[in-house]
Design a protein that fits this description.
Number of helices: 11
Largest sheet: 2 strands, antiparallel
Shape: globular
Radius of gyration: 19 Å
Helix content: 55-70%
Strand content: under 5%
Length: about 250
């Protein structure tokens, strides 16, 4: 069983990694056969409805399976060693479904003609994705995607949750992975209606999902995370005074 769990975990990780790489091409209209703006344009209402359904499916799946209460119930059915791998696999499959069934809305919202400015925006696009990837290693990439769990199970060692850590970018923002996603989704020298819908919806989901995630982190890490919240802003690399001023300005 430990060998099967290891193979399963490795397979789930492979699917995730392909999905992650495809996401870059999908959002940026790069290389991949089906991107956010490719395909035949259909009726606006149909496209919006299908895209909204796909985004909602991912949001519900991702949020529900990430909650501690669901994990406690779920691990009565699946072994705890593959719980994270299963979450990663299902999330990846839902994303692949979205890539496949996404309806393009290619009308232009803005298009940057200046090559220097467009190049700068592309630079932010890549910085966003690299921020996502490197931030996973600043906590524990292999634990985050289920490999550590199946490896420990394979060698007969008990799994222990990682200690609370604020390495690298986590010293400046509490959720650099989500910040990277937001930057990558919005950094578009050519913004179409479809990509704008995607950027607005995913940003909104991230902001809501982080509230649930923070609640879980406080419950899990207790005072250590409460103190961290008081010292470091959620998404913007600002001091807490600057963050408070920014929040008041937005009201």
């Amino acid at each position: 069983m430990a060998v099967l769990a290891l193979v399963y975990g490795l397979a789930a990780y492979a699917v995730f990694f392909v999905t992650f790489l495809y996401a870059i091409g999908f959002v940026g209209n790069l290389v991949v056969p089906k991107s956010i703006d490719s395909g035949a344009e259909g009726p606006l209402a149909t496209a919006l409805a299908v895209n909204a359904l796909l985004l909602t499916l991912f949001a519900v799946q991702h949020s529900v399976m990430a909650r501690q209460g669901f994990k406690r119930w779920w691990t009565r059915i699946v072994p705890q060693s593959i719980e994270r791998s299963t979450f990663v696999l299902v999330s990846s499959l839902v994303l692949l479904l979205m890539y496949w069934q996404w309806r393009p809305l290619p009308a232009t919202v803005w298009s940057v003609e200046n090559q220097a400015v467009a190049g700068l925006i592309w630079a932010f696009f890549w910085i966003g994705w690299l921020t996502v990837l490197f931030s996973t290693y600043m906590i524990d990439h292999f634990d985050l995607f289920g490999l550590r769990q199946v490896y420990l199970n394979f060698v007969g060692r008990s799994y222990r949750a990682l200690d609370f850590s604020t390495r690298g970018l986590y010293r400046f923002v509490r959720h650099p992975i989500m910040l990277g996603f937001i930057v990558a989704f919005w950094a578009a020298p050519h913004m179409t209606v479809g990509r704008l819908v995607f950027a607005i919806a995913t940003t909104g989901y991230i902001l809501v999902a982080l509230q649930l995630e923070e609640r879980d982190l406080v419950a899990f890490h207790g005072r250590a995370y409460e103190a961290y919240k008081q010292q470091v802003s959620m998404l913007l690399p600002l001091s807490k005074v600057e963050e408070g001023a920014a929040e008041r300005a937005m009201k």
